[in-house]
Amino acid sequence: xxxxxxxxxxxxxxxxxxxxxxxxxxxxxxxxxxxxxxxxxxxxxxxxxxxxxxxxxxxxxxxxxxxxxxxxxxxxxxxxxxxxxxxxxxxxxxxxxxxxxxxxxxxxxxxxxxxxxxxxxxxxxxxxxxxxxxxxxxxxxxxxxxxxxxxxxxxxxxxxxxxxxxxxxxxxxxxxxxxxxxxxxxxxxxxxxxxxxxxxxxxxxxxxxxxxxxxxxxxxxxxxxxxxxxxxxxxxxxxxxxxxxxxxxxxxxxxxxxxxxxxxxxxxxxxxxxxxxxxxxxxxxxxxxxxxxxxxxxxxxxxxxxxxxxxxxxxxxxxxxxxxxxxxxxxxxxxxxxxxxxxxxxxxxxxxxxxxxxxxxxx
Amino acid sequence: xxxxxxxxxxxxxxxxxxxxxxxxxxxxxxxxxxxxxxxxxxxxxxxxxxxxxxxxxxxxxxxxxxxxxxxxxxxxxxxxxxxxxxxxxxxxxxxxxxxxxxxxxxxxxxxxxxxxxxxxxxxxxxxxxxxxxxxxxxxxxxxxxxxxxxxxxxxxxxxxxxxxxxxxxxxxxxxxxxxxxxxxxxxxxxxxxxxxxxxxxxxxxxxxxxxxxxxxxxxxxxxxxxxxxxxxxxxxxxxxxxxxxxxxxxxxxxxxxxxxxxxxxxxxxxxxxxxxxxxxxxxxxxxxxxxxxxxxxxxxxxxxxxxxxxxxxxxxxxxxxxxxxxxxxxxxxxxxxxxxxxxxxxxxxxxxxxxxxxxxxxxxxxxxxxxxxxxxxxxxxxxxxxxxxxxxxxxxxxxxxxxxxxxxxxxxxxxxxxxxxxxxxxxxxxxxxxxxxxxxxxxxxxxxxxxxxxxxxxxxxxxxxxxxxxxxxxxxxxxxxxxxxxxxxxxxxxxxxxxxxxxxxxxxxxxxxxxxxxxxxxxxxxxx
Amino acid sequence: xxxxxxxxxxxxxxxxxxxxxxxxxxxxxxxxxxxxxxxxxxxxxxxxxxxxxxxxxxxxxxxxxxxxxxxxxxxxxxxxxxxxxxxxxxxxxxxxxxxxxxxxxxxxxxxxxxxxxxxxxxxxxxxxxxxxxxxxxxxxxxxxxxxxxxxxxxxxxxxxxxxxxxxxxxxxxxxxxxxxxxxxxxxxxxxxxxxxx
Lengths: 363, 528, 197
Known about the structure:
Chain B is an all-alpha fold and about 525 residues long. Chain B has 16 helices and no strands.
């Protein structure tokens, strides 16, 4: 054990403690953990110092004769009382930290985080950036997961849309979930809060340093539980204002011209991207799915059948299955992904589903 | 005088009119036979659960998906947990109880011999149900052994099989516990008052009460999931006015005492072994009894410390934190008592003692990481991380399993009539303790650095420690086969064991010959 | 072999009575598991967390408006696998404790058939719930929307003037769930589907 500890210390990249916190509360937690570990370590060494002394000295093989005592009221009372005081000493800072943690009032920005199987949705509810919303999905390409390509630096901890917040502001996070329980965890912010379907919970942080911080879903939420990372980008206030501005413009632009008629070649590249981000986890990049839970799209009756049927399932999900509704995607994205599935992996309908079709189906 | 019927009149012919072959084991009502079956069953399940653990560790050996897909991975973690808890550890200690309690208290058998047979034979069907669920469409339950809804509601038929298996296992352990309580309360040899019982009996009395109190609650919780899944109830569905968090409350109301159902008999075994090899009576017998009882009672009021991140009111977080910290006090008393038992004893280090010291050392480490986790603010960081995985493996493996090994080596001569191979036993211990720490100590660091539990793949920063852990796990798994060799060798032959092979051992079990004859204490001994 | 159960000795009678007591305890504890459900609801009511069934359509006890304080109330909307659009008309507003306020949510059904839903409210901070009285709310009953229907639904509420001073923001969040069975034809259509993992 000691050997491994040492070899661990020797390699600088091996982290032996909590991540470096970037919030005041995170530092409290960090210090509290350190304090607890030291106190426990001291007691451990003391108790087992006694035990190992006994192991080495009071040996039968060394001719040591056993004593016969088997109780001592004084000692027993003593080692019941002393721990009580040690625990009280520990409880004090612990209580202070918890009370500080729960104070979610006076937030500058409120962001709702919604857990989906298996991605995160962010809605800026209040404060600067109000109205922004987007979905954040793992952006690590499948070949890296399948060991067919070298893994990137932030393997499994990178997303397409990062959560961006300004430094120094109190950010209140509301959590909820769409399907099962998830948990929103960013270690450097010292924040972890379960996201429970049908209920909202809240937590908060105030970052003191800019930078990009990464976390993951912490509550088992099904097959892709390990693949729903959280990336929080802490930026300066000015950068944040720029980001909000850009994001709002982008959102307006993303509402692509709904009446434009597209060709197959125009939609499939976009459809492939949408598919990789939203569908490939279950239906697989090759469209073969993982039956029976996740049916194949190759040769699927739904995909090769009437367009309305497929549009309905994408918009509303399929009751009683893992197929969720994807109506948070834009009309163009949905049209693209449906067109893609209808013209890939040997599915050759040659059909194009237009954004306007989706728009009609939505109404 | 004794009120136990029967006697020497039929003791001479028991070998003749009993069924032979497999039917002997199916129909047996003998506590020693049933105890042996429990122990073999639990070891078999330990190997099954162990193979699942190795699949998990193989997948986690390096980043990327290599061995299983994420869905299978989740099934592995779920079944590993369920099998180890309900199929391996609990039956192992019930096996010890069956074998040793009648011998320790001078009873001829368990109180309800036939029920004892039933409670064992419920186990194999449940085990088959649980393992065969891997083969059904959709696979086994993949929601973690805690079976949290709403995820459990999404699962396929494998989930129903798991629920049914939990029901059967629960009924079995309740029946076993009823038997143990009745035996301990009513069938002690004359002169053996409760406060003169060996501590192992005390710990089992307390454990059995815990089982009777909480296993039905678990049965209720999984039944609610079953009706939520199939019969339109909405106990845990917000749409129908239910609450998924309610399940967690009910589950952990069972789940926390369950931890002590596993740990307390382990305390009992260690409390027999340490005095024997220290050649000195157990220090603070009475305070041991009180401490164990306090742990059991406290275990009922701390459950929500498993749920600090669900968003409960601050008052709740504080209450559960204080209550949890309190458990450290009686647990501390026990550790101090064991160390005081060794102090100025005349120690020798046969395999049972080595495993007991290993238990003491590592269980205390697990206790300390538990104390760290009891701090709500720290726990919120570490909840559902590998730190927790490390913590409870220190408690369950280094605690319960090491203590079970200590008990097995301690009583093997009594069971088989032969001494085990001391060299191999020591080898088993040293391999186990080295590989155990290699597997689990590094997981503390993984958790601190931010690796969540129950993930099949991880980012590159966690790679080194995971590799160390996986190598350790394979080493640990393989070293357990040494134990199988020791036991088989010991059954086949070896140095003859005397009635009392350990010079420092105390208790009625050492007054009967080794191996213990099929029928013992048909006339109860008088305990002075 | 004579098992002790078949005898009629004192010890057997004692064993039997212990057996009966323990079996009864096991059954009681099974019942206790179920009793935890109403107990939890009661406890949540007392502590005012997750209280789903609270309907304060009684008259407010105290209509004294406390103009010296103001509280920000945020409104949030979620859908649980329901083919609807659902959002508050106003995202947040500042109210004075004691003041009766009415806001509106807008909901629209995007499916080509009628759908019934039930809204479940949830609050943060959870302690705020007991000071939050709703006189009128669409969550008091199930809502059925015809195909394509758009509906504005009011919520009339007041924040009690006994609200603790340290709470100055309350979030009221609704999640609309599809009422199982109420859209039976939709369920029937998809009924043949396998279960997800």
